[in-house]
Amino acid sequence: MRADGSRAKPLGTGHGRLLTGVAWALLLLGLWVWGRDLTDEVAAQLPTTGDVAAVGRPPGAPAHAHAPVAASRTVRPTRLTIDALGVQAGVVPRGLATNGAVTPPPRTAPDVVGWYAGGPPPGEQGAAVLVGRVATSSDGAVFDGLSSIRPGNVVTVQRSDGSTAQFTVEDVKLYDRAHFDAGRAYGAHERGRSELRLIATGGTTDPATGDSTVNVVVSAHLTGFEPAGPVAG
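Above: the chain's sequence. Below: its structure in token form.
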């Protein structure tokens, strides 16, 4: 006890608390380092290739795009094949109608497909447009089942130079023909890709004109290309 009657604080009390705090901090740090090393050791035992590398990738991821082929002024599509729909059809050049839409083949040729010759051929950069008819009778037409095609289905286009362009379907959309926006439907989805549009009329028929009131628009992109083989002889 001091001369003034107050009680003196024990020596070393604050110092002891400081040492205790440091000891706890060192203990917690040691536990954290030990736990991290244990986790790293377990992770190092896991494979880093194969299926594990694909973890987190959503199922049905889009197929990788193939680079567009060199542009040519003479190459044109000659035949369209869609195995999922059983389609095997010839392709003929077509132009634009007064409303800006690609003119389909005549009604007298329901088994062929029209290619918009003012755009790129399938396989080159940009969106190539192919149009076909849907039957208005029981006779059938080339694109009768186009609305049933699904993402992931393959579309093959043979070209006049002997090469073959393979496309993978991305999506299928229905457009009201009365409000059909040709620019939006025909435009490329991604710059720098080779894309394909398959367009058909479907749904109900306008009794006044005999035309269908819905357009089916299938979008696909180039995922494979086979160049022309060597010429025999």
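The first strand starts at residue 77 and ends at 82.
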